Amino acid sequence: MWQIFSRFLALGLISFGGPAAHIGYFRKAFVDDLQWLDGKQYSSFVALSQFMPGPGSSQIGFAIGYHRGGLLGGLAAFLGFTLPSFLLMFLFAVTSAQWLEITAVEGAIHGLKLLAVVVVADATLSMFNQFCQRKTAKIVMAATAVAIILMPSLLMQIGVLVVAAIIGVMLMTRGDSITPDTPAIELNYAWLALFIIGIAASLYLINQPDSLGQIFAQFFQVGSLVFGGGHVVLPLLETSVGEYITPDRFLTGYALAQAIPGPMFTLATFLGADLWLESPILGALVATLAIFLPGFLLMLVGLKSWHSISQHPAIAGALAGVNAAVVGLLLSALYQPVFTSAVIMPMDMALVIIGFSLLKVFKPGLVWLVIGFAAMGSGLSML
Questions:
Q1: Taking each helix axis from N to C terminus, what angle separates 313-333 and 154-171, rounded to the nearest 10 degrees?
Q2: Cβ atoms within 10 Å of 31's Cβ, excluding its own
Q3: pLDDT one-digit tens code per residue, 122-154
Q4: Which of 132, 11, 159, 121 is nearest to 76 (CA)?
Q5: What is the DSSP string of 207-275?
Q6: C-alpha–C-alpha distance, residues 20 and 265, integer Å
């Protein structure tokens, strides 16, 4: 468990760039470097997370931990990846974030955002080579990227994934048939029951004003409804808790969540601390656990037998279509927000090209890339 926790803790400290970058970091760490799972298994987890509400990259991390060490492994992965951003957002809520305005710190953060461009570009290329070999897959990938770039919205993202799954079933299903040797699909309905109980409890607790139960209900409902993760959580949280927090304070929390590594869902940490001033740490813990819990419960319904589920011909075809669409989603995310928020000057683009070239030629470990980009960013900011 310590190995899983420590690996994800290290990633939680450096994973700038949002969900798309996290997918790249996870692939580099657990597929390429550690080889805890192969590319096909990893991509099936990515595909599963796309159809589940909740924090997509954290769900992928949870699935990797579960694959490596069962339920405790999944919890260790979640705790390790989330702990750094949880602590930072809590400290920002109860103190000040002025240290982020130090020139050297701003430069280091900018350097790590440039690293996110390199990592996402590498992940996109690797997944394209693996999942877009057929002409149909290439078309699905390109159409997805164009659609999301031109019409970015949650509805469009869900729509292209559904269409890609249908195309996969119709045109990309293997010629296999289900035989007695085909593993049976087994779902764990106990986790589904817990999710339903959580929804029912939240409907009651939401009407208990000025209580921790109300905070739990507000964030549990948001976690149950948000598809796509990342920035998509903003409007739902604003609707849920906006009347209890000033707009300026809410936007401050949102800006801080984008400036730090790890999952953006830890915006809930900041808001929970503000909502329960009697004991900010308790409010932060309740809000954070509540917003992550629904996605993990739903993942656990089919995670244990997900490998067996994905072997069924029709499902394998749907996954082939979804995997191609995910490559398109990554490509669109590489442009917006990863590239557009990081590459501002010609020097930025030069550093991205140098970093990508070094990654492909010398294949340095992630730690060295982080140190190099942070140092370059900090150094250049001082000039």
A1: 140
A2: 20
A3: 888 988 988 898 999 999 999 999 998 999 876
A4: 11
A5: TS-SSHHHHHHHHHHHHHH--S-GGGHHHHHHHHHGGGS-HHHHHHHHHHHHHSSS-GGGHHHHHHHHH
A6: 14
Report domain extents, the chain: 1-383
Predicted confidence (pLDDT) per residue in 226-266, tens digit = 765 666 676 678 778 878 888 878 877 876 787 788 898 99
- Give DSSP secondary structure letters for 265-294: GGHHHHHHHHH-TTSHHHHHHHHHHHHHHH
Per-residue tokens: 92: 């920002």
Could you give the dihedral angle defined by the CA atoms of residues 49, 52, 54 and 58, in that order, rounded to the nearest 10 degrees? Answer: -20
Region 311-319: what's the mean pLDDT?
A: 83
DSSP character at residue 32: I
- How crowded is residue 267: how many other Cβ atoms within 10 Å of its Cβ? 24
| Secondary structure string (H, E, C) spanning 309-374 | HHHCHHHHHHHHHHHHHHHHHHHHHHHHHHHHHHCCCHHHHHHHHHHHHHHHHHCCCHHHHHHHHH
Whole-number CA gyration radius for the chain:
21
Residue pointed to by tokens 């955002």:
113
Q: Give mean pLDDT, residues 276-305.
A: 93
Nearest C-alpha neighbor of 234 from the set 216, 211, 217, 252: 252
Residue 19: asked if its preceding bond is cis (omega within 30°), the reply is: no
Tokens 């790890």 correspond to 262
Distance of CA 361 to the CA centre of its chain: 28
Cα–Cα dist 229/57, whole Å:
8
What 3-state DSSP class applies to 103?
A: helix
Tokens at residue 191, please? 């986790």
- State the pLDDT at residue 100: 65
* Inter-axis angle of helices 18-26 and 2-14, nearest 10: 140
Residue 254's region, left for phi above 0, alpha for psi from -120 to 50, else beta, is alpha
Q: How confident is the model at residue 53 (pLDDT cuts 50, 70, 90)?
A: confident
DSSP string, 141-205: HHHHHHHHHHS--HHHHHHHHHHHHHHHHHHS--S----TTSPPP---HHHHHHHHHHHHHHHHH
